[in-house]
Amino acid sequence: MARKKKHPEHVNHERWLVSYADFITLLFAFFVVMFAVSQVDSKKVGRFSESFERALESNAFNSKGKGLLPAEGQQKKAPTTKDMKLPVPIKSGVLPGEKQQIRANLGKRAESAHVLSGLAILEIHGELVLRLPERLMFAVGDAQISDDGRLALGLIADEVAARHVRLRVEGHTDNAPIRTARFPSNWELSTTRATSVVAFLVDTKKIDPARLSAAGYSEYHPVAENDSVEGRKMNRRVDIVVVAAEDDSESDEPPPAPASPTKDGPAVDLPKKKEPAE
């Protein structure tokens, strides 16, 4: 049987068109994707940038470019210090008239209110200091304000509430160490006492909380020697420092030092009630 004659294979000279078509298809898809990415809803981006700016209180985007950045008409100016609400600066010292009125009025209140008999009024570094001893305010080693202490603070709040002043409450202790579950050291005790006074003044709703501050100084700012019982009593205290609040002035001065020994300024002691012998 005769074999079939093989026909010569036809050479396909157009095979490159398949690869070319694949390449063109991929290139087209690439440009379609790039075009789709570049198209952003400018309104949505504008709303997003405004929300972001409000959250940070500053411009989230401040470039004049296009794309993901908002249009030029949608941009806002960066906030300046004039636009921001700055805290009221604390200026050392009290206006002379205010100082004399607070001193005189508290003196009159002390004549009829025995709870103010332990209050001492001092002028230290140009500031008016209302010194409350521990025996009036707290039990030894505790930070809960006593009933007499609440009455005394209420009378002080009545006097200073309507005045244009700030109050800095300072807690102080003697050098006797304390180590309890609540107060591991005198730092915690002095700070908690100061914040307890601030919390009481806030609860009375007589004084704006923005005009109050608290600080604890532990045993490191004594007003007397700690080598005697009387000296330690004097060191265990709460000082309410009355300072001016000037809304229209600016001050870069550092915070004043805590009200320390009475030798820094003249003291005016109100009448003291008799204490039982210890």
Molecular structure report:
It is a single chain. Strands 1, 2, 3, 4, 5, 6 and 7 form a seven-stranded mixed sheet that branches. This protein has 278 residues and is an alpha+beta fold. It has helices at residues 16-38, 42-56, 96-112, 134-137, 147-160, 186-203, 229-235; strands spanning 90-91, 120-124, 127-133, 165-172, 212-216, 237-245, 267-269. The longest helix has 23 residues, at 16-38. It is elongated. The chain has two domains: 16-74, no CATH class; 90-269, 2-Layer Sandwich (60s Ribosomal Protein L30, Chain: A), CATH 3.30.1330.
How does CATH name the architecture of the largest domain?
2-Layer Sandwich
Order of helices and strands: HHEHEEHHEHEHEE
What class would the helix/strand composition place it in?
Answer: alpha+beta
The number of distinct structural domains comes to: 2
| N/C terminus separation | 140 Å
CATH topology of the largest domain: 60s Ribosomal Protein L30, Chain: A
Task: Name the overall outline.
Answer: elongated
Q: What can be said about the biggest beta sheet?
A: 7 strands, mixed
